[in-house]
């Protein structure tokens, strides 16, 4: 889970966090996995959006970007400086018990229309990849800002071949978006990629002839999402209500949608912690496999 | 609005209105074409900006042949650009990225309509895109990097805004045109009315004046042609009015004069009546005188006829004398022969009988000659059909001896013609008169080789007989007088002046024919025309 751009804004709106001062809301955003250039862009976009909300609703919103996730979680636990967190799925699963205990109103950010995405391992037919075993010495077109693709690929390899995929493939490249990764495979720039099913189907709509050159090798369960947000339990209800009001307003929805598009996300959805059970199991299993074969 | 129904008004109005329509139509055509061109120019500027942006953004991808970047950017870009419908990246290796807002393809061919536009310079055109199946503004730009051509970029812009702007323009223009139409309608009416009003007023006044009201005058005083016409018209009416006044006076005077003249005329009439009475009396006496004159004339004509008969008789006797001369000589010779033979005792019975037979034959011939002449002089009582040839031959027979005596030759040229209608014996008398005159003049002038040509021919209505001598003709001074009674060129004891007059009377009064004379190169030619019916 590299990129945390999206959470940024999501954080302030969805997860309203109450700082100590009731008139001030601060979002803590993990930027640990972002590249420098991309981080600058996301931070700038996020700050712009927060400034607009401040102006429109006359509320003092703030955003703090954390390079160190441990510091972020510590501050959140103590409700020090921040009222809400925006973190990647992996961080959530590593710290799920603590987060569930001190926070509420969880949200997830989605890459597509569905809440939980299914990932597909897609190969170019010219690469002669018919199964996981054929990935040896092939070029993998990964996507920046999300670790879900490489985690699932690693999970599959550990489970089926008891070794990490990095040891098998020839090279790993990074594309800016899942759709671009698919195009790179289609145009023979790489041998295979992992993208959301939703993205693949949309790409097929745009060009049905893609399926002639591409082949689906593996499909994941529908459990993946882009990022996670929750609000500290001690945040005043008044602030939570205000955040909800902002999130529900039409103007904000439009601004927020624009913002999400700029960071390659689709939308955000309110969930319950129980909804993440299946994903938690996957991560548990992956954690076990990694411990076992690394 | 109550429109005047005058022709001049309608004409002026019509001309103004046609002028308006012409100007408006020209303006409309110019405006529409200009507006279209402006909108297309605007589209071209827009598409050029898009092209610059796309080429700039994709320059690295194009150079590095990063197909996914090209497709990714263009699909996103086209999705977010409402006007851009289609982008084609045409590479030199004949591979094509065809991007639409809902799909994209990577192919090795595109429709010919697009490749035909791939030139060394940028091109723009309105065309029906077979890819989009709609009309678009299509722009093609050759892509060069470092002086080397990489390919072409095709940009198809939808025409929604162009059409909307055009529709808005049309609506605006139509609204403007309708307002202009109404305004111009009223202006045309106003101008037409202004121009035609004084003329119509003048015309109405002229109509009233023509009905007799000469006191009317035009009030139009403007300093223009109509004002001048109005003034001239007023002057003319004043002159007419004055003339008419004078005419009335003159008329009244005339009545007096007529009255006076009538009186004079009455007096004259009375005098005339007196004179008429006198004239009637004169007429009565004149009638008597006329009757007396007519009676005298009848008597004279009777005498004339009588003289004519006498003359004819004399003529006939002459002819008979000629006819008789030879047989009488023969009888005398035979009788003398018999006598001498008896005296000298050499009489032979047989010879005597022969000579006596000759005497008998000659006597019979003489007798027959008398019969012929007697029949000839019997006037016909009724008209009948007869042959000109036969009657001519009979007449010739009667004068043949006389002509032979004077060595006058008769040349006949008779054509076979229809019978004619008239009095045959009277006709023969007329022929004899002419032949006798011919003989007399030929003898009198002592013409060498005298002859007479006699021709017979016809037309549809008449049969013709021509008698022409070679005596040199009649003196033209007297030619018109020769048919008058008592006119003769012969000495007193030789001619009566009645023959030709009687012949003309016979031909024209009795037989409804014609007798004329003319001089020919030979002599006089008498032409008889006898009706066929």
Low-confidence stretches of chain A: 1-21
**CATH fold call of the domain at 7-182 in chain B:** Beta-Lactamase
Question: What is the helix tally of chain A?
Answer: 12
Number of structural units classed as domains of chain A: 2
Strand content of chain A: 15-25%
- Helix count, DSSP H or I runs of 4 or more residues of chain B: 10
Helix content of chain B: 55-70%
What is the distance, rounded to the nearest whole angstrom, between the alpha carbons of the first and last residues of chain B?
84 Å
How is this structure best described in words?
The complex is a heterodimer of chains A (294) and B (533). By secondary structure, chain A is an alpha/beta fold. Helix content of chain A is 45%, strand content 21%. Chain A is built from twelve helices and eleven strands. Chain A has helices at 5-13, 36-57, 69-77, 89-94, 96-102, 148-161, 178-186, 197-206, 210-213, 237-248, 250-262, 277-293; strands at 24-30, 60-66, 84-87, 103-110, 119-124, 139-143, 171-175, 192-196, 214-219, 227-232, 267-270. Chain A has a six-stranded mixed sheet with strand order 2-1-3-10-4-11, sandwiched between helices. In chain A, α1 (5-13) runs parallel beside α2, α2 (36-57) runs antiparallel to α11 (250-262) and α6 (148-161) crosses α12 (277-293). Chain A is globular. The model of chain A is unreliable at 1-21 (pLDDT under 50). Helices cover 61% and strands 17% of the residues of chain B. Chain B has a six-stranded antiparallel sheet with strand order 3-2-1-6-5-4. In chain B, strands 8-10-11-13-12 form a five-stranded mixed sheet. Chain B has a two-stranded antiparallel ribbon with strand order 7-9. In chain B, α8 (424-444) runs antiparallel to α10. The model of chain B has no long low-confidence stretch (mean pLDDT 85).
């Amino acid at each position: 889970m590299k990129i945390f751009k999206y959470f940024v804004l999501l954080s302030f709106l969805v997860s309203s966090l109450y700082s100590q001062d009731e008139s001030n809301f601060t979002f803590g955003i993990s930027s640990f996995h972002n590249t420098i250039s991309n981080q600058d862009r996301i931070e700038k976009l996020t700050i712009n959006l927060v400034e607009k909300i401040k102006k429109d609703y006359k509320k003092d919103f703030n955003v703090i970007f954390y390079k160190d996730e441990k510091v972020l979680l510590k501050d959140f636990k103590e409700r020090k400086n921040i009222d809400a967190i925006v973190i990647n799925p992996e961080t959530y699963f590593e710290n799920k018990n603590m987060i569930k205990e001190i926070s509420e109103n969880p949200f997830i950010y989605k890459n597509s229309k569905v809440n939980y995405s299914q990932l597909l391992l897609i190969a170019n037919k010219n690469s002669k990849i018919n199964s996981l075993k054929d990935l040896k010495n092939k070029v993998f077109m990964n996507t920046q800002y999300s670790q879900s693709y490489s985690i699932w690929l690693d999970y599959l390899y550990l489970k089926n071949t008891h070794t990490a995929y990095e040891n098998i493939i020839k090279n790993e490249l990074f594309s800016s978006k899942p759709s671009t990764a698919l195009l790179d495979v289609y145009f023979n720039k790489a041998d295979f990629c992992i993208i959301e099913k939703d993205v693949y189907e949309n790409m097929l709509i745009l060009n049905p002839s893609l399926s002639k050159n591409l082949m689906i090798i593996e499909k994941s369960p529908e459990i993946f999402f882009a990022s996670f947000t929750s609000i500290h339990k001690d945040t005043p209800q008044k602030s939570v209500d205000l955040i909800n009001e902002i999130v529900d307003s039409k103007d904000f929805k439009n601004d927020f949608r624009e913002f999400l598009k700029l960071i390659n996300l689709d939308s955000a959805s309110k969930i319950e912690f129980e909804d993440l059970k299946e994903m938690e199991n996957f991560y548990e299993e992956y954690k076990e496999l990694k411990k076992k074969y690394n | 609005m109550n429109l005047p129904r005058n022709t001049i008004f309608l004409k002026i109005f019509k001309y103004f209105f046609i002028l308006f329509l012409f100007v408006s139509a020209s303006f409309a055509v110019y405006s529409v074409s200009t507006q279209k061109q402006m909108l297309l120019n605007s589209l071209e500027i827009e598409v050029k900006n898009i092209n610059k942006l796309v080429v700039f953004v994709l320059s690295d991808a194009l150079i590095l042949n990063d197909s996914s970047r090209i497709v990714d950017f263009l699909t996103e870009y086209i999705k977010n650009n409402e006007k851009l419908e289609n982008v084609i990246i045409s590479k030199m290796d004949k591979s094509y990225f065809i991007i639409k807002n809902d799909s994209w393809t990577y192919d090795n061919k595109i429709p010919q309509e697009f490749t035909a536009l791939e030139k060394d310079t940028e091109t723009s055109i309105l065309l029906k895109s077979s890819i989009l199946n709609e009309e678009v503004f299509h722009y093609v730009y050759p892509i060069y990097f470092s002086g080397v051509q990489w390919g072409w970029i095709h940009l198809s812009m939808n025409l929604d805004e162009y059409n909307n702007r055009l529709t808005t323009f049309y609506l605006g223009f139509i609204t403007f045109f309708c307002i202009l139409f109404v305004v111009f309608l009223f202006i045309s009416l106003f101008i037409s009315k202004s121009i035609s009003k004084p003329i119509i007023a003048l015309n109405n006044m002229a109509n009233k004046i023509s009905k007799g009201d000469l006191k009317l005058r035009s009030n139009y005083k403007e300093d223009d042609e109509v004002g001048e016409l109005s003034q001239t018209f007023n002057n003319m009416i004043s002159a007419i009015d004055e003339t008419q006044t004078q005419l009335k006076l003159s008329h009244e005077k005339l009545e007096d004069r007529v009255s006076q003249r009538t009186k004079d005329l009455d007096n004259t009439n009375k005098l005339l009546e007196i004179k008429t009475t006198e004239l009637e009396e004169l007429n009565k006496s004149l009638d008597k005188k006329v009757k007396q004159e007519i009676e005298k004339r009848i008597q004279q004509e009777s005498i004339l006829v009588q003289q004519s008969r006498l003359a004819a008789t004399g003529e006939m006797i002459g002819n008979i004398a000629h006819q008789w001369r030879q047989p009488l000589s023969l009888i005398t010779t035979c009788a003398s022969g018999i006598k001498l033979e008896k005296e000298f005792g050499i009489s032979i019975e047989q010879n005597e009988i022969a000579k006596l037979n000759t005497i008998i034959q000659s006597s019979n011939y003489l007798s027959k000659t008398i019969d012929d002449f007697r029949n000839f002089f019997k006037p016909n009582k009724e008209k009948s059909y007869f042959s000109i040839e036969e009657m001519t031959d009979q007449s010739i027979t009667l004068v043949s001896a006389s002509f032979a005596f004077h060595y006058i030759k008769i040349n006949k040229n008779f054509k076979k013609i229809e019978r004619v209608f008239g009095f045959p014996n009277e006709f023969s008398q007329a022929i004899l008169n002419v032949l006798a005159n011919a003989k007399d003049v030929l003898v009198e002038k002592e013409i060498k080789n005298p002859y007479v040509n006699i021709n017979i021919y016809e037309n549809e209505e008449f049969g013709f007989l021509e008698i022409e001598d070679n005596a040199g003709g009649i003196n033209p001074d007297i030619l018109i007088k020769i048919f008058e009674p008592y006119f003769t060129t012969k000495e007193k004891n030789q001619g009566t002046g009645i023959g030709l007059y009687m012949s003309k009377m016979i031909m024209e009064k009795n037989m409804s024919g014609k007798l004329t004379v003319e001089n020919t190169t030979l002599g006089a030619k008498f032409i008889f025309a006898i009706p066929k019916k």
